[in-house]
């Protein structure tokens, strides 16, 4: 078969002094960091939708990039197969071992669900053929329950019981596909699960119905042998004004409320966390301390813009803090999916490679630097020392639930007034960060 990315070689590691745009400067798959190969620390995934489908259309203009990949007509099964060919060539050339997909990324959706599902069977057979003899696997699958106008009022949260049944049917099929392709996870991103105004919305009814749909998905998934994690991908807004999975803390509370916390973890997306007014690191930490840091959508937002720009990550500072959380978490059950798209004027096939090289190198640098922070120890030691007052008898009694408000009252009375709790030393710690980042 002829190549689609004709003049683009296999991308290899050349090191930080290389000026070759088609080479990794930091991502060295076999380099061992803290006892594990970089490729094991960083299971990168290609997002089918942005990489193979998105052509740069925005609210003001049509596609700039041609993603037909040699197919004579777009939106056909011929095109769907060309995307598979392109995707596999792309992943092989970059050494990417995973992909993520929505059902409708894979094939054009037909008017009749039976025909859509037949197309999905055909394309997944083709993908399986392509996977043979490679080490490329599916990281996670999902159903797009936000694009079609029928989902204007939500999928699990819809007011229409027929739309709800349709969403259930799509989830069933997407789970079948995920299992067929050996996917490690299944994602729920609640794109339209939220509301515009409470004047027309029964929040309790909607949230209960979302939970019921998730329970049915878990039951069905387990019944067909899906052993992986289900994920919620929190996002506070866009497309809905208020989205129910606002952030990690909100989504975790929801999962616990409805008894879904054993089967679900978080898929944290950097740009979603920042839209919620948090740092990326914050949502990772909240997920991790709750035992629910599962997977990551690795992108970055633009702080000057108030929407989900899905940029390829170049911010090494944030990637370092992300990898610090991941290392402390003992890794991920999922991986790093680049839910990122090239900027609209970056419309060539080469740009697709530059984008992934950038993203992979950024996270490789983040990993190297996060390991250095841990090995350096100054930051961890500071945090440990900061809480050292708790090591005394009183601190232990509080931690072990062996005291009462009355006892603390008497203690405080005897004390008179506590000393100041000690400097937070933020500026010192920030300078340690810079010292490690730029040495
Ligand atoms: C949208 C988004 C989605 C999910 C999968 O903001 O991030 O692409 O990752 O539905
Ligand atoms: Co995402």
Largest sheet: 8 strands, parallel, barrel
Portion of residues in helices?
A: 40-55%
Count of distinct structural domains: 2
Listing every helix as H and every strand as E from the N terminus to the C terminus, the arrangement reads: EEEEHEHHEHHEHEEHEEHEHHEHEHHHHH
**Globular, elongated, flat, extended or rod-shaped: what is the shape?**
globular
Topology of this protein?
Elements: E1 12-13, E2 23-24, E3 32-33, E4 36-37, H1 38-41, E5 44-47, H2 48-53, H3 77-94, E6 98-102, H4 103-106, H5 113-131, E7 137-142, H6 161-180, E8 185-188, E9 194-195, H7 203-223, E10 229-232, E11 242-243, H8 248-257, E12 264-269, H9 270-275, H10 280-289, E13 293-297, H11 316-328, E14 336-338, H12 349-376, H13 378-386, H14 393-399, H15 405-415, H16 426-437
Parallel strand pairs: 1-2, 5-6, 5-14, 6-7, 7-8, 8-10, 10-12, 12-13, 13-14
Antiparallel strand pairs: 3-4, 9-11
Helix pairs in contact: 3-5, 6-7, 10-11, 11-12
The chain binds D-xylulose and cobalt (II) ion (CO).
Description:
The protein is α/β, with parallel strands linked by helices and 439 residues long. It folds into two domains: 349 residues, TIM Barrel; 45 residues, no CATH class. It is built from 16 helices and 14 strands. Helix 11 crosses helix 12. The longest helix is centred in the C-terminal third of the chain and has 28 residues. It is globular, with a radius of gyration of 24 Å. The two termini are 47 Å apart. The mean pLDDT is 98. Bound molecules: D-xylulose (XUL) and cobalt (II) ion (CO). The site of cobalt (II) ion has 5 residues, from loops. The site of D-xylulose has 10 residues, from loops.
């Amino acid at each position: 078969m002829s190549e689609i990315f004709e003049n683009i070689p296999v991308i290899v590691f050349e090191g930080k002094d290389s000026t070759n745009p088609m080479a990794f400067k930091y991502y060295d798959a076999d380099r061992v960091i803290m006892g594990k190969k970089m490729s094991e620390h960083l299971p990168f995934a290609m997002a089918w939708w942005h990489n193979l489908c998105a052509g740069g259309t925005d609210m003001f203009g049509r596609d700039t990039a041609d993603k037909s990949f040699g197919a004579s007509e777009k939106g056909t099964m011929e095109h769907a197969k060309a995307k598979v060919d392109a995707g596999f060539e792309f992943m092989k050339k970059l050494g990417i071992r995973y992909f993520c997909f929505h059902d409708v990324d894979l094939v054009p959706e037909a008017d009749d669900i039976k025909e859509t599902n037949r197309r999905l069977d055909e394309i997944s057979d083709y993908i399986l053929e392509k996977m043979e003899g490679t080490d490329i696997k599916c990281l996670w699958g999902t159903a797009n329950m936000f694009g079609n106008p029928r989902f204007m009022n939500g999928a699990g949260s819809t007011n229409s019981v027929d739309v709800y049944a349709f969403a259930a049917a799509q989830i069933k099929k997407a789970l079948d596909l995920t299992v067929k392709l050996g996917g490690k996870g299944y994602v729920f991103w609640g794109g339209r699960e939220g509301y515009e105004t409470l004047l027309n919305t029964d929040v309790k009814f909607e949230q209960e119905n979302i939970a019921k749909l998730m329970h049915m998905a878990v039951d069905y998934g387990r019944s067909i042998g899906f052993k992986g994690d289900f994920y919620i991908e929190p996002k506070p807004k866009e497309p809905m004004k208020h989205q129910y999975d606002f952030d990690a803390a909100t989504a975790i509370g929801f999962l616990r409320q409805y008894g879904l916390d054993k089967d679900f973890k978080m898929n944290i997306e950097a740009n979603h966390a920042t839209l919620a007014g948090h740092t990326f690191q914050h949502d990772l930490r909240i997920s991790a301390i709750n035992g629910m840091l599962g997977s990551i959508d690795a992108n970055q937002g633009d702080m000057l813009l108030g929407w989900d720009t899905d940029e390829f990550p170049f911010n090494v500072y944030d990637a370092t803090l992300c990898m610090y959380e991941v290392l402390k978490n003992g890794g991920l059950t999922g991986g790093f999916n680049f839910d990122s798209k090239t900027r609209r004027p970056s419309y060539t096939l080469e740009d697709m490679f530059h984008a992934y090289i950038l993203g992979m190198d950024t996270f490789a640098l983040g990993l190297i630097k996060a390991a250095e922070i841990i090995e350096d120890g100054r930051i961890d030691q500071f945090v440990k020392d900061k809480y050292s007052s708790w090591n005394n008898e009183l601190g232990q009694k509080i931690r072990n639930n062996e005291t009462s408000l009355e006892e603390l009252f008497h203690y405080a009375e005897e004390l008179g007034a506590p000393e100041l709790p000690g400097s937070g030393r933020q500026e010192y710690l920030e300078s340690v960060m810079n010292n490690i980042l730029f040495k």
